[in-house]
Amino acid sequence: VSGRRAPAGSAEVIDRSARLGFTFDGRSLDGYAGDTIGSATAAGGVTVVSRSFKYHRPRGLLCCAGRCPNCLVDVDGTPNVRACTTPLRDGMQVRSQNARPSLRFDLMALADRFDRLLPIGFYYKTFIRPRRLWPLYERVLRSAAGLGRVDPRRTPDVHVRKRHLYCDVCVIGGGPAGCLAALEAASAGARVVLVDDEPALGGHLRYQSSPSAGGERVTAASGFEAAARLGTLIAAEERIEHLASASAIGIYEGGLVGVSQGDAFVRVRARRIVVCTGAAETPALFDANDRPGVMLASAILRLRHLHGVEAGQRAVVLTNDDHGWRAAAELLRAGISVAALVDERPRAAAVDAPVEAQLRAGGVEILVATHARAAVGRSSVEGVRLATPSGERTIDCDLVAMAQRPEPVIALLAQAGATITHDPVSGRFVARHMPPDVLAAGHVLGRDLPDGALTAGAVEAGRRAADSGDTSDGANDDVPAAESEYGRSDLGSGRKRFVCLCEDVTVKDLELGIAEGFRDLETLKRYSTVTMGPCQGKMCHSAAARVHAALTGDTAGPRLTTSRPPWQPVTLAALAGPHLAPVRRTAIHDRHRALGATWTDMGDWKRPLHYGDVEAECRAVRTAAGIIDVSTLGKLMLQGPDAGAFLDWLHPNRFSDLREGRVRYRAMLDDAGIVLDDGTVARLSGDRFFVSTTTGNLDAVDQWLRWWLADGSRDITVANVTSHYAAVNLAGPRARDVLSALTDLDVGREAMPYLAAAEGAVAGIPAILLRIGFVGELGYEIHVPADYGAGLWDALIDAGAAHGLRPFGVEAQRVLRLEKQHPIVGQDTDALSDPIGARLAWLVKDDKPDFMGRDAVGALRAGPSDARLVLIGFEIGARTVPAEGSAVVRNGIAIGRVTSSKWSPSLGRTIGLAWLAGDAAQDGATVAIRMGDGTDDTVTGQVRTRPFYDPDGQRLRS
Amino acid sequence: MSEHPVRRSALEAVHTTLGARWTSDVERWPLDYGSVDAERARTLGQGGLAELGPIDKLLVASPAVGASLAAAGLPFEAGRVTEDGDAQVWGLARDEALVLAPRAGDISSRIGAGAHTTDVSSGWTCLRLAGPAVPHVLEAACAVDLSNGAVAEGELVQAAMANVRVILARRDLRVSMEGDTRSHPGVTLLVARDTADYLWGALLQLGREEGLTTVGGHAVGDGPT
To answer: Which of A938, A950, A949 is nearest to A896 (CA)?
Structure first.
């Protein structure tokens, strides 16, 4: 076959004045603007586009509609691009796939010669012995398998987008039925999204030169005209949004339609969905039915009418339906010589006389009761061998046009929940029992109806989709019960009679699979991989079902396997959408950046890990003063007369008796007595409580509080003020000196002792001051409106300069708090940590009438203590830091695990926290701790149950 | 101790880079970036993203929040933005409202008894999107239907936008030119201060193809929102 440009036609979409250059496997070619890669290569005489998956057989264009696997190519480094639907761009570098060393001479094509050695499942059978060679087999198989190559060094230039569209009616399919349904729905006032996988509307009318009929909107002298008219009408209707070159990949619950459109992924939410996906030709079954030059008739017409490319000179048309007669007539009108029309049926009684007359006038030999046996030719078609009632004969041709009975494209309806059955009358799989709010119209219904009835049905579907009435009308419910229509003799026995072109699965393969016991179609599918390739069954779903039914003699008739999304391939990048990962920055972020902070991520927050010298930061806090940005702490403001009692009920300790201007530690339990969170509660005034939470637990605590307030019986308001307040912790023996310079408040030991709270101005900024400290030094936690956060930081830096103040980061804070054995909820506790084990028993006030987790804590206390895990400190003399999460072992058995471990520069030893079995948790006991470096190496440590630094808390209270 | 501490926008660094002209020496919100006319033209032609401020925000909660606000002379309607002078009331729920005003301190003192008020002025950053790009940006950023048919002028929606929570009010941009009052798509967004910088960048990224650019507050309307 030698493709070439035909004279310009009225329907073509190419601009012959705009030439585009590209290469195919290094060969320079050119095409026109409006060409696809496939049409341009065909125009350039390229007949073999790819090699098949398993046998490396040459493959050429087959469908020209993005449905088959034959034209997958690599474009500018992106593998598996469908050449037949991808618009040509100037300078494209197109390469074939799956061929070594070249497309024309592929060494792996030897597999085709030795196919008897490679039956389905050969890898299960062949590569299991000897077992030691499996690594070698695996390497070879991995090298040989797969389609296309991904260059891991290449960063693809991908700009994916995501859209969320809402509409009343989503119409899927832009053929005449889809357009008419959309127009009708829009005229009834509905907002419509029309999804069509073609670049222009009209469906098959775009490449139909014969007159079009079926109502005012589609009646025209040619299909071309009708398609153009529909496009104009749709464009003029502002209630319709037309998504062109967009594939609906699935229908999901709630009227959600996933649509892939180039680099964009569109989530369409529709009140109702009208599926108008039409019907499509699929390949016929005969030997070598994959030869380049064996094409769908619709593909030949697309190339000719839309792109001005003649796929061949002399065609034989194969059919089993009136559709083939019409297709043959279309080919004649397109200027393609048709040697013969081959119809499997004994006599095509339904064919209309004018069509037959056209064919006979065009010199077309009409053969009925005739089957194609095989395509003749090696790398392209040279003829077709036929089984006629009078014997075998071969007709020379360079093009075999398969115009079998079009199969309704019912996959999306099946996904939506329609029942799919085989209609023995029409010989098609049809959808019936439509799910609620899903309608179908046009050829997808699989009914042989006159054009007028089809268009009227589409209009009716559009109208019903737009109104609020019931959509369940039992569409297609009159389809009779199925019976297998294929006899065993129809299938032939050729070894290269391909059912599945993607996976190179033949009739013979399916026969073998069934003989091996895979009689169920679903298991046969998984064993043979039929329908599991890139086309996802578009070319082979129904054929596989029919062949299976015939081979098994299944009296229930052909059944399809489950249809699942995505119906069309979609890239992971498109599904993921643009990179939108939220980042939270404190009001002091820019100051940290200016100081050269090294960042750490804590949830969405960016926090300074350190400013370059962790030891110096620790030393400053212990000997002078330090400041750390603690804005990320959760902050809740509780107001109302019931707030104190509510906090009492939520915590094991008491807050209703907390005096104004005082702070108290809080640890929150769930009803199983598990520690959820900790922080502080400050009573600022009257019924106004300022509650802090850990950074990571804010949302959970906020929701927890609102959950228990949902009944509205308490007079309390919870306001999340986390973002409103920036916070800085000022700590160290000189902290008071620094703060005194910035406020008129008396922050002295007597006026503002440990666990005091006050409100006042700091550096002229309204502030909440809490006299608390996580790092074990004299400390003040200063909360100010975040708009002034940077100003507070600047003022503290300035005021602290004379006192040796340094900013310190999270790393120093972790070391300093570990020296005090202060646990971090979430790091040193988990979903099994109770307050008794966490050494928070002192918090639990048994004299309270009730609190969350009371019964669970009571039960814990009554249980044996030796079996309970206890959170303890440990120290190691050497500078050897076991990994957090490492096991603590006794005689090789794990008896605990490390939750935190750091080198303490001020103490000169490694310190940490660990959960340890109660009987091993005595102060001074020796424990073996795994290093957690992937080895079984252990290091010896001593249990310490009191803080390593300032165990009596004198500095904290100073 | 400073007599007049500087109040800073969450996006101060961004505005500084863009050459903002500030509201005042002690309130660093951008009036414009050099040319109000050019920014207005870009907004009307393609789309503009601006930060508005400084704006105080007062959270008012009460089972009878409408009555409490009425005591301060403020209207209230759940799910909508209502206005009185330069104050706006965002009716977040039947029992919760957010009062936005240049200075909310005096309003707080006038709120009726029984309501709990919390100053959250620094907690929310107020962004404004206006111009033809708005529908496209909203479609790309938010899974909720924010089209004109779904959200009427003045209505509120709380949703995730570019994966962060926002409170959105549909506030079309009205431009009077030679007697012709035209309306352009517009929304006002409240986003937590700590995610404002992220959302600012995300919206610009999502609106790049439609020509969305940064503009000063003057280009997207004269009022606070």
So the answer is: A938
d(CA B119, CA A95): 64
Instruction: List, for residues A751-783, the tens digit of each pLDDT value.
Output: 999 999 999 999 999 999 999 999 999 999 999
- Contact call for B163 and A583, based on CB within 8 A: no
**Cβ atoms within 10 A of the Cβ of A750, count?**
6
Q: Does A110 touch chain B (CB under 8 A)?
A: no
Q: Phi, psi (5° rounding) for residue B136?
A: -65, -40
How much is the average pLDDT of A88-109? Answer: 92
Residues of chain A neighbouring B113 (CB-CB closer than 8 A): none
Q: What is the pLDDT along chain B (225 residues), one digit of tens a residue?
A: 556 899 999 999 999 999 999 999 999 999 999 999 999 999 999 999 999 999 999 999 999 999 999 999 999 999 999 999 999 999 999 999 999 999 888 898 899 888 999 999 999 999 999 999 999 999 999 999 999 889 999 999 999 999 999 999 999 998 776 566 778 999 999 999 999 999 999 999 999 999 999 999 989 874 444
Q: Please count the other Cβ atoms lying within 10 Å of the Cβ belonging to residue A875.
A: 16
Strand partners, A943: A874
Is the confidence at residue A902, as pLDDT, over 60? yes
What are the φ and ψ backbone dihedral angles of A374, each rounded to 5 degrees? -160, 150
**A–B CB contacts, 8 A cutoff, strictly below:** 129
Pick from A164, A578, A795: CB nearest B142: A164
What is the distance between the alpha carbons of residues A434 and A417, in angstroms, rounded to a whole number?
7
CB interface of A with B, residues 622-681, below 8 Å: 631, 637, 639-640
Sign of CA dihedral A842, A843, A849, A853: negative
- For the segment A504-552, what is each residue's pLDDT rounded down to a tens digit? 999 999 999 999 999 999 999 999 999 999 999 999 999 999 999 999 9
ipTM of this predicted complex? Answer: 0.97
Question: Angle between the A614-623 and A810-819 helix axes, to the nearest 10 degrees?
Answer: 50
Is the omega angle on the peptide bond into residue A130 within 30 degrees of 0, that is, cis?
yes
| Joined tokens for residue A341 | 């029309």
- What b/e string do you get for A697-728 counting C-beta neighbours within 10 Å, with b at 16 or more? bbeebbebbeeebeeeeebbbbbbbbbbbbbb
Identify the helix (H) or strand (E) that includes residue A152.
Answer: none
Cα A875 from Cα A881, distance rounded (Å): 10
A660 half-sphere exposure, CB direction, 13 A CA radius? 6
In residues, how long is chain B?
225
pTM, two decimal places: 0.90
CA B28: distance to chain centroid? 16
CA distance A912 to B142: 45
Give pLDDT, residue A846: 86
Q: Which own/partner pairs from B200-203 qualify as long-range (CB within 8 Å, at least 24 positions apart)?
A: B200/B11, B200/B14, B200/B49, B200/B51, B200/B127, B202/A580, B202/B141, B202/B162, B203/B49, B203/B127, B203/B129, B203/B137, B203/B141, B203/B161, B203/B162
Alpha-carbon span A176 to A454, nearest angstrom: 9
Q: Using an 8 Å CB-CB cutoff, list chain B residues near A699.
A: none
